[in-house]
Specification:
Layout lengths: L2 H30 L2 H31 L5 H16 L2 H42 L3 H13 L3 H17 L13 E3 L7 H24 L3 H27 L2 E3 L3 E6 L3 E6 L3 E6 L11 E2 L9 E13 L4 E9 L4 H10 L1
Parallel strand pairs: 6-8
Antiparallel strand pairs: 1-2, 2-3, 3-4, 4-7, 5-7, 7-8
């Protein structure tokens, strides 16, 4: 793991832990203390939601990762929304007053975003005319308009997840006729495995929801909504794996596994293509790009390292990739012939 990627990961993990502690710790205290002390605890929790957490977000995420300070408005709005759902009526009145103060700034931000939409659309269409890859074309367009930042990559990645998770029936734009495409899920049996995961997730969501309702109905609703987002993520993963195929054209090779990662290189850069077992082990460094961390039936080695672009913006170069692909023999013969 590179140092550049390790730091954002640590920062995100830290702010996530803080958010969980504030929410669940505050809710536990709010329901555990006597009624006489509940109002004071609610006031303290309100301050944590509206002031403490946004301030920590600024110093842990925005400032170290050099993200636009405008993103803090979104964090404050979300914090106020959660506080309004979980706190008693008296504190809700305070939240409404805070929202009045931030409303003007949010309206100005929305106007700014609308003015950038046309420019964003033009740059996206330019990238689309070169190669129809909605995930990375959107990321490139947003980076061109709003700057190359970690926050922009995260937003673009989340939009990609929603696109494939909520619009899973939408067909992928056709590529040029001279492209040969290969799927990556059939030989591994990923659809059957995915169905097992989804069934287990649905059972867990329902059971956990009713368990939390005994403690707090609001907490149960919030956790269930977050779990449903994970459900959308699983749908997006399968949808993208089925649609985003491996492509080979004249001298270009596009390797990818759904939304998870992508590598673009030339066929002339390929050193070797080898069919292997699913229990492959090596002491050398290679990128594990299979459908699961221990799967992969194709080992492809390059003369020069290729850049692996992951969904949430982590990029690193490798000279060997382990991945899944259906019909390895046909793929190897096609690459060798070209």
């Amino acid at each position: 793991m590179t140092a550049a990627f390790a730091k954002p990961t640590r920062n995100i993990a830290a702010i996530t832990i803080i958010a969980v502690l504030i929410f669940f710790g505050g809710m536990l205290m709010l329901h555990a203390v006597p009624i006489a002390a509940k109002d004071k605890i609610a006031d303290g929790l309100l301050a944590d939601f509206v002031i403490t957490f946004p301030a920590l977000y600024y110093f842990i995420i925005i400032r170290p990762l050099k993200i636009s300070a405008k993103k803090l408005l979104i964090v404050i709005s979300l914090s106020c929304g959660v506080a309004y759902l979980v706190l008693p009526q008296q504190q809700r009145e305070y939240i409404l007053q805070v929202r009045k103060l931030t409303a003007v700034a949010e309206i100005a931000f929305i106007i700014y975003a609308v003015t950038k939409f046309n420019k964003l659309r033009k740059i996206y269409l330019v990238h689309k005319s070169i190669f129809p890859d909605p995930v990375y074309n959107l990321r490139s367009a947003m980076a061109g308009v709003m700057g190359e930042s970690f926050g922009v990559k995260i937003i673009a990645s989340e939009l990609a997840v929603l696109r494939y998770g909520l619009l899973f029936w939408k067909k992928e734009q056709a590529v040029e006729n001279n492209n040969s495409s290969f799927t990556a899920h059939r030989e591994f049996g990923y659809i059957a495995l995915w169905c097992i995961f989804i069934f287990a997730m649905m059972v867990e969501i329902v059971a956990f929801h009713f368990l939390l309702r005994k403690w707090s109905n609001t907490a149960a609703i919030i956790v269930t909504v977050l779990s449903c987002y994970s459900f959308i993520l699983f749908i997006a993963d399968l949808s993208a794996i089925l649609k985003r195929k491996i492509l080979v054209n004249n001298n270009q090779l596009i390797l990818r596994t759904g939304l998870r990662w992508r590598a673009v290189t030339t066929i002339s850069n390929v050193s070797s293509v080898e069919k292997i077992r699913y229990d492959y082990h090596s002491t050398g460094t290679y990128f594990k790009g299979g459908i699961t961390s221990k799967s992969g039936n194709l080992l492809i080695t390059f003369n020069e390292p290729v850049l692996i672009e992951k969904l949430y913006g982590a990029s690193r170069s490798f000279d060997t990739i382990l991945m899944n692909i259906d019909d390895v023999e046909l793929f190897a013969s096609l690459v060798s012939a070209k």
